[in-house]
Task: inverse folding
């Protein structure tokens, strides 16, 4: 008898608000292995280098270093880790930042319904936008 063990994707989470970071982890832990949760972009870069996650879920605006800058630093170091940005920013800001696919943008109010789909999409090389950003 064969046993099939499906490996869960390893996800690193970054958000500067404790409650939001915990909410993101709770949304993800059923479907994915959360390997770390950090509170700023500098910690995000350091943790990503050490932990080698499959996907990063990050707020865009954080202290010390924003999520987009953290992503750019990882790319400069040869770490092409797919990103899912979670944000409450308006659509114009997201359109400006979405120039480097595959990237996902999930509106914080839609995390329960969209976050798992976004993580799976970017890992598969696809972009993803919450309905809030598509309108």
Result:
């Amino acid at each position: 008898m064969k046993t099939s063990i499906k490996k869960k994707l390893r996800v690193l989470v970054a958000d500067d608000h404790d409650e939001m970071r915990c909410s993101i982890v709770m949304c993800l832990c059923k479907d994915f292995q959360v390997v770390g949760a950090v509170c700023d972009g500098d910690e995000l870069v350091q943790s990503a280098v050490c932990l080698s996650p499959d996907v990063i879920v990050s707020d865009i605006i954080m202290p010390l270093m924003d999520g987009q800058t953290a992503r750019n630093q990882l790319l400069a170091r040869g770490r092409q880790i797919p990103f899912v940005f979670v944000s409450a920013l308006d659509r114009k800001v997201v359109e400006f930042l979405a120039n480097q696919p595959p990237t996902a943008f999930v509106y914080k109010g839609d995390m329960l319904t969209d976050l798992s789909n976004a993580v799976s999409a970017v890992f598969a090389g696809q972009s993803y936008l919450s309905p809030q950003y598509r309108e």
